[in-house]
Design goal:
With 433 residues, the protein is α+β, with helices and mostly antiparallel strands. The chain has eight helices and 15 strands. An eleven-stranded mixed β-sheet has the order 1-2-4-5-6-3-11-14-13-12-10. The protein has a two-stranded antiparallel sheet with strand order 7-8. It has a two-stranded parallel ribbon with strand order 9-15.
């Protein structure tokens, strides 16, 4: 069953056509910067500047919401396309902001940019001819899932501009899948860096219920192919959720695998703690984790006064980079980020904690799982708000991580499932304007 799902995901990602320029080319010198695009988004949403503890009331915007999807005109993928620039080559302050210790570009910063850019694309897709020109955009747009972020082998320079672009590739009644690309401009050539797939949901102005969006009507054969891939990925997400280890028991093969770990990798003496047979080749999962808290300041809020999802993604990415270095002894290379779940909003006044675990290793691959646990200082309660999966690679084989408890065994199996999917040689074919 798991192998069938991996095949389905590969098929869905390869629905992107070989021809990467299926409509038009965009001149690089005509692109708005990310800062300009963010400012445009803020204005269109009617968001006031300055932090206020009480969220701005948007209930009056409900009058502008369309009641039925049939009231909205169909849109093509071309209609939602946007491209922008991160001007690293000319902005020295921006270079400092994006520089990483290994001489490349900080992936966490790029994830922040991709997340808010996906919202911009989603906003452009939604078109209501009946919305008055002076009315703010009524829908609230929230990231639900980041399905997949693939990283190429190209090593980025912090002194070259980065082009960001994307479009809606599938839409349902109230949610849409968006593909976001990052490319670096190297000697006037575009070098592919990432492809990311975001699922954005449209909500009413108070973010309490779903809002309808425009349907997609593919404009040509390429768009039909891409749309079909979106349907496959939706099916993949549904079937993966049905196999959630908190809902169903592991497969027989996975149960045998865990049993073999205990019989082959551990020393068990009744009445004594279990021990690893070979500490040079294996390490406890409980010793392969880090946790940290971070403040979420007003500058980290989104347009709706909760913590910006991209900021949380950056914190999770950088925590796993630290853990990967501690675990392997070298700067790990990020390969994929998958199955990012935004389970609930994080209030600005909360104190989020990051818990990162190395849950599975194989050869030179390291798979990590991250949970965000947000503490509410008013109620004294906490809840899991986000879940992430990261796959890294290093230059030499790493030790095998060994689970001790049943919970760790489930994390081990889940990590193995993700790594088996993430490490497939997925192509970077895709649409580009």
């Amino acid at each position: 069953m798991i192998k069938n799902l991996q095949t389905l995901l590969t098929k869905s990602l390869n629905h992107y056509p070989k021809n990467r320029t299926y409509t038009r080319q965009v001149k690089l010198d005509n692109l708005d910067t990310m800062d300009k695009l963010k400012e445009n988004l803020k204005k269109s949403m009617g968001i006031e500047s300055g932090f206020k503890a009480i969220k701005q009331d948007r209930k009056h915007l409900e009058q502008y919401l369309p009641k039925k999807q049939e009231d909205l005109p169909p849109r093509s993928m071309e209609d939602s396309f946007i491209a922008g620039i991160i001007p690293l080559s000319t902005d020295k302050d921006l270079q400092d902001k994006y520089s990483s210790l290994d001489g490349s570009v900080r992936k966490g910063r790029l994830m922040e940019d991709m997340d808010i850019f996906a919202v911009m694309v989603a906003q452009k897709h939604i078109c209501d001819p009946n919305l008055p020109e002076d009315a703010p955009f009524p829908q609230v747009l929230v990231t639900v899932v980041v399905d997949k972020i693939e990283i190429t082998e190209y090593k980025m320079s912090v002194e070259q501009d980065i082009r960001i672009s994307g479009h809606v590739c599938w839409s349902g009644k109230s949610s849409m899948e968006i593909v976001v690309w990052l490319e670096q401009i190297d000697n006037k050539e575009l070098k592919r860096v990432t492809r990311a797939l975001f699922v954005i949901a449209a909500r009413d102005p108070t973010n309490t219920k779903a809002a309808v969006i425009n349907p997609i009507k593919p404009a040509n054969e390429n768009e039909k192919m891409i749309f079909a891939g979106g349907l496959d990925r939706k099916k993949f997400r549904q079937e993966i959720e049905a196999l959630n280890l908190y809902k169903t028991i592991p497969t027989v093969e996975e149960q045998h695998m865990i049993h073999n770990i205990f019989t082959q990798k551990l020393i068990f003496i009744p009445g004594s703690p279990m021990k690893l047979k070979d500490r040079n080749q294996t390490v406890w999962m409980g010793d392969s984790t880090i946790s940290t808290n971070f403040y979420s300041h007003p500058e980290n809020r989104n347009l709706h006064n909760t913590v910006f999802g991209g900021f949380i993604m950056r914190q999770a990415c950088e925590a796993t980079s630290v853990l990967g270095y501690r675990f392997s002894g070298e700067f790990p290379r990020l390969k994929t980020i998958s199955d990012i779940r935004f389970l609930s909003a994080v209030p600005v006044f909360s104190f989020p904690a990051i818990h990162a675990f190395v849950v599975y290793t194989e050869g030179t691959y390291i798979h990590m799982m991250v949970y965000i646990d947000a503490f509410d200082p008013i109620t004294k309660g906490s809840q899991i708000t986000n879940r992430f999966n990261f796959t890294y690679s290093v230059s030499k084989p790493v030790r095998e991580v060994i689970p001790l408890t049943y919970n760790e065994a489930m994390m081990y199996i889940d990590g193995r499932r993700h790594l088996k999917t993430d490490s497939q040689k997925l192509s970077f074919k895709g649409t580009k304007k």
